[in-house]
Design brief:
The chain is of the alpha/beta class and 189 residues long. It has a single domain, classed as Rossmann fold. It is 43% helix and 22% strand. The protein contains 7 helices and 9 strands; from the N terminus they run E-H-E-E-E-H-E-E-H-E-H-E-H-H-E-H. The strands form 2 sheets. A 5-stranded parallel sheet has the order 2-7-1-8-9, sandwiched between helices. The longest helix has 16 residues. The chain starts with a strand and ends with a helix.
């Protein structure tokens, strides 16, 4: 079996996580690729289910061992990465890894896996809509909101480097579009 991989990325608040959850529920061939992270687990998060929570030292050891397909320092001092062993675990189960990561990490994996990787960028309809979505969450301070919007502007500047860009102006339509792109890529119906 070819080692294919699906990579989905988006600015925070664009609806990526919701779309990924719907895809995983409707397409049993896909399996969520659990990322490694140096941040602390949040309430309810479980090591090995939500993330592989690593100390900074353990993360750097894995970098030295070339254990990552990609890794980035996404926020100051906070590293995230995709372990090659996680992708192998999914392939050994005859499934396709669904990787939900940041823009730079997505492009790094695409570079590594080339035509066996499908990259999809979920784009918000506008930065104003993104601001509204992030504000509605009620989890952002004014400072963190502006930080996320600044990061979103930066990430949007890379959208042309992805195989496909899907605008999430209506969730169900965006989900169906992403599902069709994956189905075509995997040649399954």
């Amino acid at each position: 079996m070819e080692k294919r991989i699906i990579i989905i990325t988006a600015p925070s608040g664009a609806g990526k996580t919701t779309i990924v959850k719907k895809l995983l529920a409707s397409m049993p061939v896909l399996a969520f690729s659990i990322s490694a992270a140096t941040r602390a687990a949040r309430d309810g998060e479980v090591d090995g289910r939500d993330y592989y929570f690593l100390s900074a030292e353990a993360f750097h050891q894995k970098i030295a061992e070339h254990a990552f397909a990609e890794y980035e320092m996404v926020y100051a001092g906070k590293y995230y990465g995709t372990l090659k062993s996680e992708l192998e675990r999914i392939w050994q189960q005859s499934q396709i890894p669904m990787v939900d990561i940041d823009v730079k990490g997505a492009l790094s994996i695409k570079e590594l896996y080339q035509e066996n990787a499908l990259t999809i960028f979920i784009e918000p309809p506008s930065l104003e809509t993104l601001r509204d979505r992030l504000s509605e969450r009620g989890t952002e301070t004014q400072t963190s909101l502006e930080e996320r919007l600044g990061k979103a502007r930066y990430e949007l500047s890379f959208s042309h480097e992805f195989d496909h860009v899907v605008v999430n102006d209506q969730l169900e339509r965006a989900y169906e579009e992403v599902k069709n792109l994956i189905t075509d890529f995997l040649k399954i119906r």
